[in-house]
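WARN no homologs supplied; continuing
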Amino acid sequence: MKRQGISPCRRIGADQADCSSTAAGVIAAGGIVAIPTETSYGLAVDPWNHAALERLFTLKRRPPSKAVLLLVDSTTTLPRLISHIPELYNPLIATFWPGPLTLVFPAREVLPKLLTAGSQTVGIRISSNPLATRICRYAGGAITATSANFSNSEPARTADEIIRIFQDQIDLVVDGGELGQSRCSTVVGIEDGKLKVIREGEISGPALLSF
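OK structure emitted
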């Protein structure tokens, strides 16, 4: 039952013809949009918009010490966000992108500190969900991809669940139906010149470290 005085956010279907451009328009205007990805629903904002990032952190009850991961539409967007691509990542990119593999890159200094948590690094992946990548492209090439939940809670896997959690605190939900029980993306970085699995996820660590 809806709480008195609280309206759920707007919802559009993933099969709607102008879904991608509508979602991208809300993101470009500083809004928060829940979108389906290959793992779970994510909360997308413009990563260059400081006010949108602050609102996202407040919404998720996320401490500023935790960085936010990004989706990009293609590798051609990477130079806007990172200083370089480590050589160790090239075979991983060729094999696992698009897909649930987040790579931690050296960030360009111009990136907002909230995005990187002051770490001088940024986690990025290309989603294997075509809709997520299309929204990303229409929104300028990069969007946040933090899971649609409160921090330290299970990610939402349906639009109804997102609306129940956030009510009118987000601007749009792209309803892609019920997502499966996929694990989160695997996060990989580099330590002492070697690949390091920072977070085990959908892709197993041994599969990655064999490269």
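The chain has seven helices and eleven strands.
OK
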